[in-house]
Write a structure and sequence with these properties.
GO terms for molecular function: 5-(carboxyamino)imidazole ribonucleotide synthase activity; ATP binding; metal ion binding; phosphoribosylaminoimidazole carboxylase activity. It catalyses: 5-amino-1-(5-phospho-beta-D-ribosyl)imidazole + hydrogencarbonate + ATP = 5-carboxyamino-1-(5-phospho-D-ribosyl)imidazole + ADP + phosphate + 2 H(+). One of its GO terms (biological process) is 'de novo' IMP biosynthetic process. By secondary structure, the chain is α+β, with helices and mostly antiparallel strands. 31% of the residues lie in helices and 27% in strands. The strands form 3 sheets. Strands 9, 10, 11, 12, 13, 14, 15, 16 and 17 form a 9-stranded antiparallel beta sheet that branches. Helix 1 (19-30) packs across helix 10, helix 2 packs parallel to helix 3 (83-90) and helix 6 packs across helix 7 (168-174). It starts with 10 loop residues before the first strand and ends with a helix.
Length: 380
């Protein structure tokens, strides 16, 4: 039996109602779909743009089943959904991506083991399950390492940088005294990411790689298409396609990559959802990542990934709202070629993503200069 196709007019369910869910819901509405979401926060960013928002924990399988019964397919906007919840949904309607994909991705050690077994290139790494094992791993990997919680963590949380095995005990305590993955520090030239969409019928669409810049382990800005050598672009695209097809993803998969100073490309992490580094697709591409997510999980024909004009984004963190006077919205809205995207979050906190700016230009570098000027005008 061929996978179910969900046509416009149907109902899409979402596990998670954060900003990614909000933007996916808006894209779904443009295509004529109804949308329901489940999120622990009754005031989540998606609540005002969906038809129904169920307030329940991600571990509430009964609530997830109620959502599933009302939907023609269900997807997710955050990867920390418990596997039993995904399995409960799948008993009633297609869960895209499914529990098999999340089982690999949710645990960093399991994810890296799967990638290594598949022959995908990784930097040196080890798992540790105690402070003593952590010290041994740091020593074996050369001293300077990044220690990451095996599960959870986002936007720089759940990880600690160390420079020697002497810091193992402190790092173990900081990360909650639970399983960790230890990664050797690498000589990075740059960071990039590739977004792949795959529908249940096997159709695949790959966006051009994005070039990403992080500050304090949070994405600060991103360019699309990434101004990178053709050989790097080809390698990154081939890796991303291979990983997505090997995992048999139904929906979106973003592959975060490292470009080393010696020119080699290594896999960093995987994300089975829309991604911050591809927000620029809303202004750069014929099909945004959010519309593509809807098309993929509904098993509809995938849209064109052509970049019709280079674009860049800058993230807006809560720090800006905490400054005297707050963001200067009127100034940035008067700037040509620039768009303001806000996520509807009521509470601003340091480091919390409240929105982003996007800009188009004649080149990726021109778009970056424009969006950075807009960020300055906004008060950053």
């Amino acid at each position: 039996m061929s996978p179910r196709v969900v046509l416009p007019g149907g109902t899409i369910g979402m596990l998670g109602g954060g900003q990614l869910g909000r933007m996916m819901a808006l894209a779904a509405r443009t295509l004529g779909f109804q949308v329901q979401a489940l999120d622990p926060d009754a005031d989540c960013p998606a609540h005002s743009v969906v038809d129904l928002c169920v307030t329940a924990s991600f571990g509430d399988t009964a609530a997830a089943e109620t959502l599933a019964r009302a939907c023609d397919t269900v997807t997710l906007e955050i990867e920390k959904i418990p596997l039993p919840t995904l399995e409960a949904v799948a008993r009633h309607t297609p869960m895209r991506p499914g529990a098999d994909v999340l089982r690999v991705i949710q645990h960093r050690g399991r994810q890296k083991g799967w990638l290594a077994k598949g022959g995908f290139p990784l930097g040196p790494w080890r798992e540790a399950h105690s402070a003593a094992e952590l010290a041994e791993a740091i020593q074996a990997l050369g001293g300077r390492c990044f220690v990451k919680s095996s599960e959870g963590g986002y936007d720089g949380r759940g990880q600690v940088e160390v420079t020697s095995a002497d810091e193992a005990a402190q790092a173990w305590r900081e990360l909650g005294e639970r399983s960790v993955v230890v990664e050797a520090a690498l000589a990075l030239q740059s960071e990039l990411s590739v977004l792949v969409a795959r529908s249940p019928n096997g159709e695949v669409a790959v966006y051009p790689p994005a070039f990403n810049h992080h500050e304090e382990r949070i994405l600060a800005w991103s360019l699309l298409p990434g101004p990178l050598p053709p050989a790097v672009l080809d390698t990154a695209t081939e890796l991303a396609r291979g990983i997505t097809e090997s995992l048999q993803v139904e929906g979106l998969l973003v592959i975060e990559l490292f470009l080393l100073k010696d020119g080699s490309v290594l896999v960093n992490e995987l994300a089975p959802r829309p991604h911050n580094s591809f927000h620029s697709t809303e202004v750069a591409c014929l099909t945004s990542q959010f519309e593509q997510a809807v098309r993929a999980v509904c098993n509809l024909p995938l849209g064109s990934v052509e970049v019709v004009r280079p674009a860049a984004i800058v993230n807006l963190l809560g720090d800006l709202w905490l400054k005297d006077g707050g963001p200067r919205f009127q100034e940035v809205l008067a700037m040509p070629g620039v768009r303001l995207h806000l996520y509807g979050k009521r509470e601003a906190r340091k480091g919390r993503k409240m929105g982003h700016l996007s800009a188009v230009g004649s080149s990726p570098e021109d778009a970056l200069a424009r969006v950075q000027a807009a960020a300055t005008a906004l008060g950053m």
